[in-house]
Amino acid sequence: MFDTALSAADLWFLTKGAGMTILVTAVSVVFGTVLGIVFGVFRYQLGAIWAAPVTFVLDVSRSIPLLIQLVLANAFLGTVLRLQMSGFTVACMVLTLYTAAYCAEIVRGGIDAVPLNTRRAARSLGMTWAQDMRYIVMPLATRVALPSWIGLALGVMKDSALVYVVQVVELMKSTQILITRLQEPLFLLLICGLFYFVISFPLARFGGYLEKRWSND
Amino acid sequence: MIEIENVYKSFGALQVLKGINLTVPNGEVLTVIGGSGSGKSTLLTCINGLEKIDSGRILVDGTDVHAKSTDLNKLRQKLGIVFQQFNAFPHLTVLENVTLAPRKVLGQSKEQAREMAVKQLSHVGLGDKLDVYPSRLSGGQQQRMAIARALAMSPDYMLFDEVTSALDPQLVGEVLDTLRLLASEGMTMICVTHEMKFAREVSDRVAFFDKGVMAEIAPPAQLFDAPQTESLKTFLAATH
Ligand SMILES: Nc1ncnc2c1ncn2[C@@H]1O[C@H](COP(=O)(O)OP(=O)(O)OP(=O)(O)O)[C@@H](O)[C@H]1O
Ligand SMILES: [Mg+2]
Questions:
Q1: How much is the pTM?
Q2: For B83, which of A121, A127, A140 is closest by C-beta distance?
Q3: Which of A185, B11, B181, B227 is the most buried (most CB within 10 A)?
Q4: How confident is the model at residue A217 (pLDDT cuts 50, 70, 90)?
Q5: Which domain range does residue B112 map to?
């Protein structure tokens, strides 16, 4: 098994793939979370009926397989709208919306979990809606939402393996390229899995750390 | 002065307040008693504008609470309210619970707010719990913290909604003592309560609510010893 043709250059190639995976994930999770918070608050404030258009878009994004979304978005943006967009941009856009769709639900659930009485207490002290959101709802909702959000972020990272269909060479695609060349699928997949683990582990641990820190109150 | 003029309020088809008229002058301790669902809590939440009213007016120092032009956040600074359910901010320490609104709403400095908070927390007997999280407090301590939190805004009026109802019997006394202390200091208070002994002892006047109507209002001796209406007689007989 250690008798491998994998060279240092190949490892560097995989590392660059991992870098792309991190980049696509980071961009999508950051923007997706911001959008998700906006949509989530929006849905919570407006109620189901007024928020219906937004909900519809988010539902679509959640229910169509990512692979199909990527291919269709790429075709639509490139061929129909004739926009000069890189695969990377398309990938980030689709994944951002996908993240936002799930994040909006997580955010709404988090806000829902804050007891109305606690919020009334805040408002009755003269706090504005925004102050209530900032100092009471946000910290309490975050505690509730964090485990799901970590799960979402890790999920998006793994799902980002699909962006190869828009010509982005990330970790999974890099691995496949090497497999084709070296014909050592099991060994390479093992390495690839290790890379994914190394990327995910800090995020999972960070979540665990925050949960522990918050458990005292 | 709090002036309540012909206030009507319903939740959907359910009429909860049916023409309430009531004036609470400064310095008065008014207790409100009455059966479950008679509209006592609703009246308090209407006074500080957490609930809207259907018709009538509520004036606090001459300001119409429900007028469009009224800045409710500003008005609420003079109306402290403590609810039946404990509603500490669970992610903040006792000290932070009390300093949050003075800092963010009144714009006090950290030190200024802390000084006031320590004063109010000591006042209610929690001077040694500053850095504790609310989950470590008993129900009685949580209610006293809520009182200190409201007092830290230097309100002119305090509204209490059955602040002892959710407490174990042995913790009721400590919270009532805090209310007595406030009353003796001349705070204008409206206390919704089921504690008849307390009502008799601290109130200037007691109001009896029955099905959305203020059926009787009188000084405690008169109201308790010479009830005028059948409903009050029945209510008092049931609580004794
Ligand atoms: N937000 C609300 N939506 C719908 N109905 C409500 C709401 N708040 C109160 N009610 C109803 O209004 C009526 C009066 O409620 P309120 O809480 O004012 O009574 P109360 O006198 O405080 O009773 P209790 O002694 O049980 O606290 C009740 O029938 C209650 O179910
Ligand atoms: Mg009530």
A1: 0.86
A2: A121
A3: B227
A4: low
A5: 88-155
